[in-house]
Every structure is written in C-alpha cells, then in structure tokens.
C-alpha cells in the first residue's frame, strides 16, 4: 500500500473502532451511571487489587484533586474502601468492595452480551470468522509503542 492508502486504512479503522467503543458504552445501563474515569478506576482496582490515590491518578492521567473527586463518588456508591496503610498512616489504600466488583462485572457482562447478540444477528458465519482472525492484528496494534 502507498502512504495515502495507509492513511485511509488508519482513518477508517480508527473511526470504526471509536464508533464501536461509543456504542458499547451506551449498551450498558449500569455503566451509564458512571463516568469513563470511574469505570476505568474500578477496572484498575480490580486488576491491581489495591492502589494509592496518587497511583490511580497517574494511571488515569488526571490530577490528584480530580482523582479525589472520582474516589469520593465511588466511595459514596459503596464501590471502594479506604484503608490506612500499615507502613505509613498518612497514606490511604483504595480497594474495591464486593459491590464494586459486582458492578464492574455487570458492566462488562452487559457489553459482552450486547456485542455477542450484535455479532450473531448482523454478521454471517464468514464475517464472524473474519472478526476472529482480526483479533491477533488488533491486539498487536494495542501493544504497539
């Protein structure tokens, strides 16, 4: 492919993926109750089990003050706990509550169920096979630095 074709492919892929991500966000009634940063924060806590607020802020690329607002809202909803650090009582460790884990799982399940239904109802078996084959190159793009 030439440079123009490369750019056209990149633009079409970006547009398609962006539209799909936006659609997926709307297809979770549970997820609509939370901001993108709140959902991402829950996912980070699920992955890492517990983190400092400053670590979460760095991961989300927001200020500590903004993360404080996110954490206050998640705390009010009962999705996180705050525990004083054993080694430094000035530090607070943030973890998911069982309700926070259930909510994150519910959001993921709602999206997966919608996407599975959409794939089954709109794509032929041959197109479904193409989607399966596209996963490897898509994952390579995600890992590219």
Write the layout of secondary structure elements.
Elements: H1 3-26, H2 36-48, E1 50-51, H3 53-60, H4 64-76, E2 80-84, E3 92-96, H5 98-122, H6 125-143
Antiparallel strand pairs: 1-3, 2-3
Helix pairs in contact: 3-4
Overall 3D geometry? Answer: elongated
As a whole number of angstroms, the C-alpha radius of gyration is 19 Å
Low-confidence parts, pLDDT < 50 over ≥5 residues?
none
DSSP helix fraction: over 70%
Largest sheet data: 3 strands, antiparallel
Number of strands: 3
The class by helix and strand makeup works out as: mainly alpha
Q: Return the average pLDDT rounded to an integer.
A: 95
Distance between the termini: 22 Å
What is the H-and-E element order? HHEHHEEHH
Which strand order does the major sheet show?
1-3-2
Number of domains: 2
* SS field, number of helical segments: 6
Instruction: State the assembly state of the protein chains.
Output: single chain
Give the DSSP E fraction (strand runs of 2 or more residues).
5-15%
Detailed description of the structure:
This protein is mainly alpha-helical. The protein has two domains: 81 residues, no CATH class; 63 residues, Winged helix-like DNA-binding domain superfamily/Winged helix DNA-binding domain (Arc Repressor Mutant, subunit A). Helix content is 70%, strand content 8%. Strands 1-3-2 form a three-stranded antiparallel sheet. A hairpin with a 7-residue loop joins strand 2 and strand 3. Helix 3 crosses helix 4.
Short description:
The protein is mostly helical. The chain has helices at residues 3-26, 36-48, 53-60, 64-76, 98-122, 125-143; strands spanning 50-51, 80-84, 92-96. The chain has two domains: 1-33 and 98-145, no CATH class; 34-96, Winged helix-like DNA-binding domain superfamily/Winged helix DNA-binding domain (Arc Repressor Mutant, subunit A, Orthogonal Bundle).
């Amino acid at each position: 492919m030439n440079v123009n074709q490369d750019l056209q492919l990149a633009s079409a892929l970006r547009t398609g993926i962006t539209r799909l991500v936006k659609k997926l966000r709307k297809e979770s009634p549970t997820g609509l109750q939370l901001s993108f940063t709140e959902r991402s924060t829950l996912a980070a806590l699920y992955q890492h089990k517990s983190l400092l607020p400053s670590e979460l802020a760095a991961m989300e690329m927001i200020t500590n003050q903004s993360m404080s607002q996110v954490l206050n809202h998640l705390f009010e909803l009962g999705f996180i706990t705050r525990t004083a650090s054993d080694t430094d009582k000035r530090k607070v460790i943030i973890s998911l509550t069982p309700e926070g884990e259930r909510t994150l799982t519910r959001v993921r399940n709602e999206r997966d169920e919608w996407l599975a239904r959409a794939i089954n109802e709109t794509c032929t078996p041959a197109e479904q096979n193409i989607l399966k084959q596209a996963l490897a190159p898509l994952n390579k793009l995600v890992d590219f630095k």
